[in-house]
Structures are given as C-alpha cells and as structure tokens.
Fold each of these.
Amino acid sequence: MDLIIKDSPINAPANRRKHRYVICDNLLDFYYAYLFRDVTGRTAVSPETFYAQQLRSAIATDYLPRKFEQVAKEYLLRQNRAGKIQPPFMRIGRYIYNDKARHQNGEFDVVTEDSRGLIAYECKYRQAPVGLKYVREEEWQHKQLGINFYRLGFFARNGFAPDIDRQRYSLISLADMYA
C-alpha cells in the first residue's frame, strides 16, 4: 500500500540503527503527528482555538519544512529522469554525520551521488530570502566536518539574495520548482 517506507541515509545504508520509517501519505502523516496525540484537547476546545494554540506554529516550524524537503527531493528526481541534471545522479537521500568536536549528530537534507561525487542540498522553508551569510555558514560547516561535497545547492521557499553567485551554487526557489 506504500503507506510507510524505510528511509536509509545515503552514506550508511547498511546501518540498521540509522534507518527510520516514514509515513508517505500526507494526510496520515499530519493526523498522527498532530491530531492523534491530542484527542482530548481537540474535543475540549473549538477547532479555531485548537488550531491557534496547538497547530499554527507546529505546522510552520516542523511540518511544512519537512514536506518542503520531500518536495525538493522529488523535484531533483524528476529533473534527473528528464535528463536535465548533468552528470545524472544514481543515488539520492539524506546524509548523516557525527560532529565529534561539538558532540552532536546531524544530517544534510538532500544529497545526491553521481560519477563525480556528492552534492549537498539544504532546504530552507522560511519567510526571508536566503542570503550569502547563510550560504557561507553552510560551506564552512561542510569544511569543518571534513565532508567532501564537490558542489552545494540550496532550495529556498522565498528565493535568494542577489549577492549569491549562481554559477558556484545550485540555487532553486519554490517559484523555480513550479515554473
């Protein structure tokens, strides 16, 4: 039925502890993430109050950014299948890392692997356009971790600042995805 899939990181597909299971259907995902867990609260107040107090901020800060990553991944897959990405990638997924200096784990949103190596894409679902400062921070983070991505890309809901070099980075806005 394809309701649940196993999501393995691109750099550790055999590591069972790094797998996660994801609900594919958006309605079911939303229901179990936000409505199922608070049945009592949902019935105790009006739907407007429940939305304002429980859902509005969670949707904007958690649910929609997560779905934006999924849309970005699907966009790359469609562009790759249409032959618009050169060289074409053979694998796509998330990339996990362990930053021993800071004692924290993390992941890069979408990473593709082609014949030249890895390309990392960061997805930003926020109101303001992505600026050069953020791009430089991401680049610095990759260098500090010692991960060798040969190119960086960014997906942004509201576009990019004009000072970012479009030749150096892959910059894709939400408007570009639906053009």
Note: The helical segments are 26-35, 39-44, 47-81, 132-145, 174-177.
Amino acid sequence: MKKSICSVAVVAMMSLFAASCNNSAPKVDEKSASVSSVDANMKIAYVEVDSIMTQYKFCKEYSAILEKKGQNIQNTLNSKGTALQNAVNKFQQDIQNNQYTQQQAESVQASLQKQQSDLQALQQRLSSEFQSETEKFNNALRDSIQHYLTIYNKDKKFSLILSKAGDNILYADKTYDITNEIITGLNKAYKGMPAEKKK
C-alpha cells in the first residue's frame, strides 16, 4: 500500500514540476527552437522529488495517515473475508452432516451470498474512499509546492525548475540542485497537520 502511495505521489510531483516553472516564460515555437537559440542568461534548477517525498513534513505526515488508513481498510476486509470463509466452511460441513432441511440450506446459502455481495460492495466503497483521499493529498501537495515555488522564484528568477525522479533527467550538475533549499523553505512554511486529520 505504501509503495502505491509513493508512486502516485511521485507521478503527481513530476507533473507538478513540469507545470510549475515561471509562467511568464515565453512559449517555445517548436519550429524555430534550437540549442543555439536558447537564451544564455536562462536560469535552470532542479529538485529531487524523492527527497521531497521523504523530507517534506507535510508529505511524511500525510503518507503516514494514508498508510494507516490503507492498513485499517486491509484489516477490515481481511477480518470480514475470514469470517465469511469460516461461515461457508461451516455451512459445507453442516450440509455434509445433514444438519439442514432443503429450505434451511437454501436460506443459509442465500444469506452467505448476500454477505459476499456486501463484502464486495464494502471493498469497492473503501477503495474508492481511499483513492479519493489519495487524490486530495496529491492535490494539496501539488498546491503547497506550487505556492511555495511562486514565492521562492520571485527572488531567484529561475526560467525553469525541473523535477528529477529516477532517470527522467539523464545528467544534472549538482550546482543546479535546489532541493535542500526547497525542502527547508517548505518545512519552514508548513504549519502542521490539523489534529483531526491525524486521528
């Protein structure tokens, strides 16, 4: 569950940084663009997404909340699934031992089928709620970073801020790495998770 949270968040972060550069930067005409025509004064920086995911307090707190929710969902479904399986096993044993009339057996079987249907509906509902919560987290994470980068870039004047995750950037000079600055600024600006969210 934790890996899926992180991978979803990393994808969200990559799309965030792709869109969070200086919005006033001129659009590039694909036909006329060439390496030689790039402005020599263009300032570029990059941020390590994995570091933000592990060091930004907001991300760490929310990931812990999502992990706990995911584990609670899994425990609930496992418990109900085990109870249903035990009921099915008992029903089969009782059938073999001729414990039911045909009408009783049909009634118990219908009850077991309803329990299975209810469990599937519960699984779908909890999965949908968890997905919705994860999307809210990704949106809040993106918004907080975009907001901070807007403030940060007023002084820094970067033309482009890239996200570096895995091998999506083949080479990057560490001189252009502003990850620690961004993480420090984000954590300084972060006011903490509301108490009701932590429950």
Note: The chain has a mean pLDDT of 84.
Amino acid sequence: MKINVKGGKINRSEIDEYIRYAAQKHPGRQIRQMDIIIDGEFVDLKFYFGDMDFQHAYRSADYLVSSMEKLNDAKQAEFSQKERHGIQEKKK
C-alpha cells in the first residue's frame, strides 16, 4: 500500500495505526493507496481502493450492484421486465 503524508510529518507507529484503522473500517477491501492529510491538530484520511474494477453496474431501487446475483428474486424479475432505452447522440 502506498502511503502519502501531506501537510506535516508523523512517525511510523502513527502511520501503522492509520493502516490498522483503515483495515478495520473497510474489511475485505483492497486499499491500494492512502493519503494522510495533516491539518493542524486534525488528520483527514483518503482511501483509494483497488477492488473496484467491474465492467457493469446495475441500478435497482437507488443503489448499485456489480452483479445481478446480489439482487433477490423479486428485484431480478423487476430488472428483467424493465424497458431498455438506447443511448441518444447529441445533436449538433
């Protein structure tokens, strides 16, 4: 994991604590990069995930899923019955 510290300096043990925090906050996610942004007495953390590579997202009831198998039977049926709209090109 690549670590970027911005706005100041912190020691290695504090960086390790932020890495542990990130792993607990996002279990099962691959964090490929983390920015630690120091702002006076405050620290902001920004995570960049490596496991977000999917080819298609399905929208159902205002949430996104990467696979139809994650939807229950009723939502799968609803999705299969939806009317599809083609992509329209902008007129110049």
Note: Residues 12 and 81 are 55 Å apart (CA to CA).
